Structure formats: structure tokens, C-alpha cells
Amino acid sequence: MNRVNVEISPAQWCEIPAIIDLLSAAMPVDGITSARFTRQVLLDPSHDADGFLVAKSGNTIAGVCVAAARNPPLDENDAQRGFITLLAVDARFRRQGIGTKLIAAAEARLAARGRSVVLVSPYGPGYFTPGIDIAAYPAAVNLFGKLGYEQASRPISMQTDLWQLKEPEFVEQTRRKLALAGVKIEPYRVELTRPILDFAQSEFGLDWFTTYHQTMQSILRGDDAGRIVAAHQDGKVLGISHHDGERFGPIGVAASARGRGLGHLLMFATLGNQKRAGLRCAWFLWSDDRTAARLYHAGGFKEIRRFVVMRKGHA
């Protein structure tokens, strides 16, 4: 097959419908709809039009790539990091070097913004997946590997059947023990607004703050207060949990309070709220094998996808 000539350039707004069609066809397990693409790319506060790239053969869009970098960065380390959040090539144009050209253009754009490390693709808040789905897109894993990317981690996505939800006996025992110590597990109420937000930012960073802040606004507009659950003792928040429809998390416990069973109590409180809302399942995109064994298996979560985070460059 003769290689087609393609031009790499920033996308034009009139091309967005064709780009979404390409992404939907090329990434069938990820459900990239117009609304989702708009939320996670076009409405990203750090959206960079020059990092939203397409490969065109004549007037036909053959591929798309999105390069992102948080602006302002979260911290000094984040100031070195750039992300490739999407890469797709039309099936008719594959194996012609188009993916390689798009990646090179994305790397050049990120380098121009002072980013010396490129990650695929754990970019909050706009990531579609925490990495490349190993089973669904093995060719992409191989391509990035050939271009010098190393495998940094292998996160997993998990799901549980809420209709079959059962608490292990130790959860109730833990609940009683912590209640005697003055620990309360309860849904969001307005008095907890600043304690939860301050906890989210100090323990886990700006992404968590943003997620909980946005959900509080939704609750104040009428959503169920049980979308957020907090564990607190003596006026101090020890842990928080969250859900958005079927999507479970993020959930976290203060480093100083771990090992007491708070994670299990928060998890089952949130899963119970999801079940009472009439949801059939709960799922999340990102964890690791260690956390799955320590926490999520007790809630019936099972692995449904495994990803690989790819990394290139040094800070």
C-alpha cells in the first residue's frame, strides 16, 4: 500500500463532528459521545487549541490526537508534565505512520509549553481512561513502546453488582467499634462543606477538591446528599467518599487515619446510597491491585479492564 500524504494541524471547529465520529469508531469500548468529548476536551479549563491536532488527507480526517497540560500546574512536578489524552487513526489509514506523526506533533507542542515528561494518559480532570486499554488497543501500546515510552503502572477498572451487595460481618463490627470512639459516617450537610473541601485538597490535591466542590453544587441544586459521604471525629474529617450515578469514587482516608477500617465503612455507605438510588451496578476507572485486594474485593468489585500508563522523558 502506498502511503498517503497527510498534514498535521490544529483542528478547526467545523471538523469536530467528524472527529467525534472517528473517535467513536476507533475507540469502540470507550463510548466517546459528543457530550463527553465536549465536557472533557472543549470545556477543559486548560484546553490548548494548538494541542488539539488532526491528521488530514485532503479534506478527510485520518487521525486525531489531544495533547494537554494543566494551566496553571498543580505544583512544580506538574509543571514538567504533559499528557496525551486521545490518539486515534481511522482504520482506512492505519499502518502508514500517521499515529507516529501525531505523537511527534503532540510532543513538540508540549515541549513548546515547557513540558519535559509526557504521560499517556492520566490527566485530571479530562482523562477518558487512566491509560491505554491493554486488551482493546494492543497496537497503541506497541506504538508508544517503539517511540520510547516506558510502562509506568498498570491501573485497573472494576465493577460490582449492587443487586448482590452484601456486607461482610467485619464491617458491622468495625462500624460499632468506631462509633464508640466517636467516629460518625454520614452524608454531606452544609456544615461539612469547608471541612470536606479542605480535607480533599490537603490530602489528595486540587482534582479532588474540584470534584467534591462540583458535586456539592449539584447537591445544593437538588441532587441526593448521599452522593458525598464523610467520616469525621471530634470535628475533624478523616475520610470521604463520592459517587456520580453508577460511577464510584473518588474515595480516600487521611494518611494518619488508615488501618482502622474507615475505607470499608465509607465504601459500603456509598454503595448503599447507590443501591437505594435504584442503580444496578457501581464501577470506577482507576485503582491498583493492592488497593483492590485491601478494599474493593470486600465490596464485590471485579476487574473489567486493565490499562497501562505510558511515560516518556525526565523532569
What's the short version?
This protein has 315 residues and is α+β, with helices and mostly antiparallel strands. It is built from 9 helices and 15 strands.
Structure characterization notes:
The chain has 315 residues and is α+β, with helices and mostly antiparallel strands. The chain folds into 2 domains: 7-155 and 309-313, Aminopeptidase; 158-287, Gcn5-related N-acetyltransferase (GNAT) (Aminopeptidase). 33% of the residues lie in helices and 27% in strands. The protein has 9 helices and 15 strands. A hairpin with a 2-residue loop joins β2 and β3. It is elongated. The model has no long low-confidence stretch (mean pLDDT 96).
Unreliable runs, pLDDT <50, ≥5 residues? none
Shape: elongated
CATH architecture of the largest domain, by name, is 3-Layer(aba) Sandwich
What does the main sheet amount to? 10 strands, mixed
Q: What is the name of the CATH topology of the largest domain?
A: Aminopeptidase
Distance separating the two termini? 40 Å
Rg result: 21 Å
Instruction: State the share of residues found in helices, binned by percent.
Output: 25-40%
> CATH first level of the largest domain: which class?
Alpha Beta
Mean of pLDDT: 96
Considering the chains and any ligands shown, give keywords for the structure.
315 residues; Aminopeptidase; five-stranded antiparallel β-sheet; 15 strands
Show the helix and strand layout.
Elements: E1 7-10, H1 16-26, H2 34-42, E2 52-57, E3 60-68, E4 81-89, H3 98-112, E5 117-120, E6 132-133, H4 138-146, E7 150-153, E8 156-161, H5 169-180, E9 184-187, H6 193-204, H7 206-220, E10 228-233, E11 236-244, E12 247-248, E13 252-253, H8 262-276, E14 281-287, H9 289-294, E15 302-313
Parallel strand pairs: 4-5
Antiparallel strand pairs: 1-2, 2-3, 3-4, 5-15, 6-15, 7-15, 8-14, 8-15, 9-10, 10-11, 11-12, 11-13
Helix pairs in contact: 5-8, 6-7
